[in-house]
UniProtKB/TrEMBL annotation:
Record family assignment: Belongs to the claudin family.
Pfam families: PMP22_Claudin
Superkingdom of the source species: Eukaryota
Signal peptide: none
Transmembrane spans: 79-99, 111-136, 156-184
MF annotations from Gene Ontology: structural molecule activity
Biased composition (Basic and acidic residues): 264-273
Gene: Claudin-23
Keyword Membrane applies: yes
Subcellular location: Cell junction, Tight junction; Cell membrane
Name of the featured protein: Claudin-23
Length: 293
Protein backbone atom coordinates (compact mmCIF):
# COMPACT_ATOMS: atom_id res chain seq x y z
CA UNK A 1 0.00 0.00 0.00
CA UNK A 2 1.04 3.61 -0.38
CA UNK A 3 2.56 5.42 2.55
CA UNK A 4 -0.13 7.60 4.21
CA UNK A 5 0.15 11.34 3.79
CA UNK A 6 0.58 11.99 7.51
CA UNK A 7 3.55 9.65 7.63
CA UNK A 8 5.15 11.18 4.56
CA UNK A 9 4.70 14.68 5.95
CA UNK A 10 6.18 13.68 9.29
CA UNK A 11 9.17 12.02 7.67
CA UNK A 12 9.89 15.21 5.73
CA UNK A 13 9.43 17.74 8.55
CA UNK A 14 11.17 15.81 11.33
CA UNK A 15 14.63 15.50 9.69
CA UNK A 16 14.47 19.18 8.73
CA UNK A 17 13.70 20.06 12.33
CA UNK A 18 16.55 17.89 13.52
CA UNK A 19 19.00 19.61 11.18
CA UNK A 20 17.91 23.09 12.24
CA UNK A 21 17.96 22.23 15.94
CA UNK A 22 21.42 20.70 15.66
CA UNK A 23 22.69 23.80 13.86
CA UNK A 24 21.15 26.06 16.48
CA UNK A 25 22.73 24.08 19.30
CA UNK A 26 26.28 24.08 17.92
CA UNK A 27 26.57 27.51 16.33
CA UNK A 28 27.54 30.57 18.46
CA UNK A 29 24.79 32.85 17.25
CA UNK A 30 22.16 33.00 19.97
CA UNK A 31 22.89 36.62 20.79
CA UNK A 32 24.62 39.37 18.85
CA UNK A 33 26.44 42.04 20.91
CA UNK A 34 27.88 45.22 19.37
CA UNK A 35 28.65 48.88 20.17
CA UNK A 36 31.75 48.44 22.35
CA UNK A 37 33.46 51.65 23.49
CA UNK A 38 37.00 50.28 23.46
CA UNK A 39 36.60 48.37 20.20
CA UNK A 40 36.20 49.39 16.56
CA UNK A 41 32.70 50.25 15.42
CA UNK A 42 32.38 47.19 13.16
CA UNK A 43 33.28 44.68 15.86
CA UNK A 44 30.48 42.21 16.62
CA UNK A 45 30.46 39.54 19.33
CA UNK A 46 28.42 36.37 18.71
CA UNK A 47 27.42 34.45 21.83
CA UNK A 48 26.17 30.87 21.79
CA UNK A 49 25.73 27.97 24.19
CA UNK A 50 29.25 26.64 23.86
CA UNK A 51 31.40 29.34 22.33
CA UNK A 52 31.77 33.09 21.68
CA UNK A 53 33.20 34.48 18.45
CA UNK A 54 34.49 37.96 17.61
CA UNK A 55 33.96 39.20 14.07
CA UNK A 56 35.17 42.41 12.45
CA UNK A 57 34.06 43.74 9.05
CA UNK A 58 32.66 40.30 8.18
CA UNK A 59 36.15 39.20 7.17
CA UNK A 60 37.94 38.15 10.32
CA UNK A 61 36.32 35.82 12.82
CA UNK A 62 37.97 34.64 16.00
CA UNK A 63 36.24 32.09 18.21
CA UNK A 64 37.13 30.96 21.71
CA UNK A 65 36.80 34.43 23.25
CA UNK A 66 37.22 34.60 27.06
CA UNK A 67 34.10 34.87 29.22
CA UNK A 68 34.94 37.72 31.57
CA UNK A 69 31.36 38.41 32.73
CA UNK A 70 30.24 34.84 33.48
CA UNK A 71 27.96 34.41 30.48
CA UNK A 72 28.27 30.63 30.31
CA UNK A 73 27.35 30.27 33.97
CA UNK A 74 23.99 32.01 33.49
CA UNK A 75 20.99 29.86 34.24
CA UNK A 76 19.29 30.19 30.80
CA UNK A 77 22.51 29.09 29.10
CA UNK A 78 23.04 26.06 31.34
CA UNK A 79 19.40 24.96 31.05
CA UNK A 80 19.48 25.43 27.28
CA UNK A 81 22.53 23.18 27.00
CA UNK A 82 20.84 20.28 28.79
CA UNK A 83 17.47 20.61 27.10
CA UNK A 84 18.86 21.01 23.60
CA UNK A 85 21.05 17.91 23.94
CA UNK A 86 18.08 15.96 25.34
CA UNK A 87 15.92 17.14 22.46
CA UNK A 88 18.51 16.00 19.91
CA UNK A 89 18.78 12.56 21.50
CA UNK A 90 15.01 12.06 21.61
CA UNK A 91 14.73 13.28 18.02
CA UNK A 92 17.27 10.67 16.88
CA UNK A 93 15.36 7.88 18.64
CA UNK A 94 12.07 9.12 17.23
CA UNK A 95 13.42 9.17 13.68
CA UNK A 96 14.75 5.64 14.10
CA UNK A 97 11.35 4.39 15.23
CA UNK A 98 9.67 6.34 12.45
CA UNK A 99 11.92 4.69 9.87
CA UNK A 100 11.01 1.25 11.18
CA UNK A 101 7.33 2.02 11.61
CA UNK A 102 6.55 3.89 8.42
CA UNK A 103 7.91 1.26 6.09
CA UNK A 104 9.67 -1.48 8.04
CA UNK A 105 10.31 -3.16 4.68
CA UNK A 106 6.78 -4.54 4.59
CA UNK A 107 3.72 -4.00 2.44
CA UNK A 108 1.85 -2.18 5.20
CA UNK A 109 3.38 0.27 7.71
CA UNK A 110 3.40 -0.36 11.45
CA UNK A 111 0.91 2.25 12.61
CA UNK A 112 1.54 1.86 16.33
CA UNK A 113 5.30 2.23 15.98
CA UNK A 114 4.91 5.24 13.69
CA UNK A 115 2.53 6.86 16.18
CA UNK A 116 4.98 6.28 19.02
CA UNK A 117 7.75 7.93 17.03
CA UNK A 118 5.44 10.90 16.47
CA UNK A 119 4.94 11.28 20.21
CA UNK A 120 8.70 11.24 20.79
CA UNK A 121 9.34 13.81 18.06
CA UNK A 122 6.62 16.06 19.44
CA UNK A 123 8.21 15.84 22.89
CA UNK A 124 11.62 16.64 21.39
CA UNK A 125 10.25 19.73 19.69
CA UNK A 126 8.67 20.86 22.94
CA UNK A 127 11.94 20.36 24.83
CA UNK A 128 13.86 22.44 22.30
CA UNK A 129 11.22 25.18 22.25
CA UNK A 130 11.46 25.75 26.01
CA UNK A 131 15.11 26.89 26.18
CA UNK A 132 14.82 28.93 22.99
CA UNK A 133 11.82 30.83 24.33
CA UNK A 134 13.37 31.26 27.75
CA UNK A 135 16.63 32.58 26.32
CA UNK A 136 14.74 35.01 24.08
CA UNK A 137 12.75 36.23 27.07
CA UNK A 138 15.93 37.22 28.98
CA UNK A 139 17.86 38.29 25.90
CA UNK A 140 18.19 41.96 26.90
CA UNK A 141 18.18 41.39 30.66
CA UNK A 142 21.76 42.24 31.70
CA UNK A 143 21.21 40.82 35.18
CA UNK A 144 20.35 37.35 33.91
CA UNK A 145 22.52 37.23 30.76
CA UNK A 146 25.58 39.40 31.59
CA UNK A 147 26.82 41.90 29.02
CA UNK A 148 28.71 45.21 29.06
CA UNK A 149 26.78 48.30 30.04
CA UNK A 150 25.24 50.73 27.59
CA UNK A 151 25.87 51.85 24.87
CA UNK A 152 26.45 48.15 24.11
CA UNK A 153 23.35 46.72 22.42
CA UNK A 154 22.14 43.16 22.05
CA UNK A 155 20.12 41.60 19.22
CA UNK A 156 18.67 38.24 18.34
CA UNK A 157 21.17 35.95 16.60
CA UNK A 158 20.55 33.59 13.71
CA UNK A 159 20.98 30.51 15.92
CA UNK A 160 17.99 31.53 18.00
CA UNK A 161 15.87 31.88 14.85
CA UNK A 162 17.00 28.45 13.64
CA UNK A 163 16.07 27.03 17.03
CA UNK A 164 12.56 28.40 16.73
CA UNK A 165 12.14 26.98 13.23
CA UNK A 166 13.57 23.59 14.16
CA UNK A 167 11.30 23.29 17.20
CA UNK A 168 8.20 24.15 15.18
CA UNK A 169 9.11 21.63 12.48
CA UNK A 170 9.62 18.93 15.09
CA UNK A 171 6.25 19.72 16.63
CA UNK A 172 4.49 19.57 13.28
CA UNK A 173 6.29 16.42 12.15
CA UNK A 174 5.68 14.68 15.46
CA UNK A 175 2.01 15.59 15.44
CA UNK A 176 1.64 14.35 11.88
CA UNK A 177 3.26 11.01 12.71
CA UNK A 178 1.19 10.73 15.89
CA UNK A 179 -1.93 10.71 13.72
CA UNK A 180 -0.86 7.21 12.66
CA UNK A 181 -2.45 6.00 15.88
CA UNK A 182 -5.90 6.57 14.33
CA UNK A 183 -5.92 3.49 12.00
CA UNK A 184 -4.34 1.38 14.74
CA UNK A 185 -6.97 2.43 17.31
CA UNK A 186 -9.77 1.85 14.80
CA UNK A 187 -8.48 -1.65 14.07
CA UNK A 188 -8.19 -2.47 17.78
CA UNK A 189 -11.72 -1.23 18.47
CA UNK A 190 -13.07 -3.22 15.55
CA UNK A 191 -11.41 -6.42 16.78
CA UNK A 192 -12.66 -5.81 20.33
CA UNK A 193 -16.22 -5.41 19.09
CA UNK A 194 -15.98 -8.70 17.23
CA UNK A 195 -14.76 -10.54 20.32
CA UNK A 196 -17.44 -9.13 22.67
CA UNK A 197 -20.31 -11.67 23.09
CA UNK A 198 -22.79 -9.01 24.16
CA UNK A 199 -22.22 -7.17 20.95
CA UNK A 200 -22.78 -10.34 18.96
CA UNK A 201 -26.03 -11.05 20.77
CA UNK A 202 -27.18 -7.49 20.33
CA UNK A 203 -26.40 -7.53 16.65
CA UNK A 204 -28.32 -10.81 16.13
CA UNK A 205 -31.39 -9.38 17.83
CA UNK A 206 -31.36 -6.13 15.97
CA UNK A 207 -31.01 -7.85 12.59
CA UNK A 208 -34.40 -8.93 11.26
CA UNK A 209 -34.82 -10.52 7.85
CA UNK A 210 -38.30 -10.22 6.36
CA UNK A 211 -39.24 -12.35 3.36
CA UNK A 212 -41.71 -10.11 1.64
CA UNK A 213 -43.82 -11.74 -1.12
CA UNK A 214 -43.15 -10.59 -4.61
CA UNK A 215 -45.82 -8.16 -5.83
CA UNK A 216 -48.14 -9.39 -8.53
CA UNK A 217 -47.51 -7.90 -11.93
CA UNK A 218 -50.18 -5.68 -13.34
CA UNK A 219 -52.09 -6.91 -16.41
CA UNK A 220 -50.82 -3.89 -18.31
CA UNK A 221 -47.32 -5.39 -18.41
CA UNK A 222 -46.70 -7.31 -21.59
CA UNK A 223 -44.16 -10.02 -22.01
CA UNK A 224 -41.99 -10.02 -25.06
CA UNK A 225 -39.62 -12.72 -26.24
CA UNK A 226 -37.63 -12.57 -29.45
CA UNK A 227 -39.51 -9.43 -30.44
CA UNK A 228 -42.99 -11.04 -30.14
CA UNK A 229 -45.70 -10.69 -27.57
CA UNK A 230 -46.00 -13.69 -25.29
CA UNK A 231 -48.69 -14.56 -22.74
CA UNK A 232 -48.01 -14.13 -19.08
CA UNK A 233 -46.18 -16.93 -17.27
CA UNK A 234 -49.33 -17.66 -15.25
CA UNK A 235 -51.32 -18.14 -18.43
CA UNK A 236 -48.66 -20.40 -19.87
CA UNK A 237 -48.73 -22.56 -16.78
CA UNK A 238 -52.52 -22.69 -16.78
CA UNK A 239 -52.75 -23.63 -20.45
CA UNK A 240 -50.10 -26.31 -20.11
CA UNK A 241 -52.17 -28.19 -17.53
CA UNK A 242 -54.65 -30.54 -19.17
CA UNK A 243 -57.88 -31.67 -17.61
CA UNK A 244 -58.19 -35.37 -16.92
CA UNK A 245 -61.54 -37.23 -16.69
CA UNK A 246 -64.86 -37.64 -18.59
CA UNK A 247 -67.98 -35.50 -18.66
CA UNK A 248 -70.83 -36.48 -16.35
CA UNK A 249 -74.32 -36.71 -17.90
CA UNK A 250 -76.63 -34.00 -16.80
CA UNK A 251 -80.03 -35.11 -15.41
CA UNK A 252 -83.04 -34.24 -17.61
CA UNK A 253 -85.09 -31.30 -16.43
CA UNK A 254 -88.20 -32.15 -14.44
CA UNK A 255 -91.52 -31.52 -16.14
CA UNK A 256 -94.04 -29.49 -14.22
CA UNK A 257 -97.34 -31.27 -13.57
CA UNK A 258 -100.41 -29.60 -12.27
CA UNK A 259 -102.70 -31.96 -10.33
CA UNK A 260 -105.71 -29.74 -11.08
CA UNK A 261 -107.42 -30.23 -14.40
CA UNK A 262 -107.59 -26.76 -15.78
CA UNK A 263 -109.84 -27.87 -18.62
CA UNK A 264 -112.41 -29.09 -16.21
CA UNK A 265 -115.54 -27.06 -16.70
CA UNK A 266 -114.68 -25.99 -20.22
CA UNK A 267 -116.34 -29.01 -21.68
CA UNK A 268 -120.07 -28.66 -22.23
CA UNK A 269 -122.30 -31.52 -21.16
CA UNK A 270 -123.04 -34.07 -23.82
CA UNK A 271 -126.11 -33.03 -25.82
CA UNK A 272 -128.28 -35.32 -27.67
CA UNK A 273 -128.35 -32.91 -30.56
CA UNK A 274 -124.85 -34.05 -31.67
CA UNK A 275 -123.40 -30.63 -31.46
CA UNK A 276 -119.72 -29.84 -30.76
CA UNK A 277 -118.26 -31.16 -27.56
CA UNK A 278 -116.44 -27.91 -26.85
CA UNK A 279 -118.27 -24.72 -26.34
CA UNK A 280 -118.07 -21.73 -24.15
CA UNK A 281 -117.84 -22.44 -20.51
CA UNK A 282 -120.88 -22.20 -18.40
CA UNK A 283 -121.38 -19.14 -16.33
CA UNK A 284 -121.37 -21.06 -13.11
CA UNK A 285 -117.81 -22.45 -13.60
CA UNK A 286 -115.19 -20.97 -11.16
CA UNK A 287 -112.11 -22.20 -13.07
CA UNK A 288 -110.52 -19.94 -15.68
CA UNK A 289 -110.66 -20.79 -19.33
CA UNK A 290 -107.82 -20.66 -21.83
CA UNK A 291 -109.58 -17.93 -23.69
CA UNK A 292 -109.76 -15.85 -20.53
CA UNK A 293 -106.06 -16.36 -19.95
Amino acid sequence: MRTPVVMTLGMVLAPCGLLLTLTSTLTPGWRLVKGFLDQPVDVVLYQGLWDMCREQSSRERQCGQPDDLGYFTAEPVRVARGLMITSLAITAVGLLLATLGVRCWQDEPHFALAGLSGVLLFAAGFLSLIPVSWYNHFLADRAVLPVQASPVTVQVGYSLVLGYLGSCLLLLGGFSLALSFAPWCAECCHSCRKETPDNLRRSSISTVYVDWPEPALTPAIKYYSDGQHRPRPAQIGASSQRKVGFPMPRPPPKAYTNPVDVLDGEKAPDSHHGGSSLSTRPCGSALPCDSDL
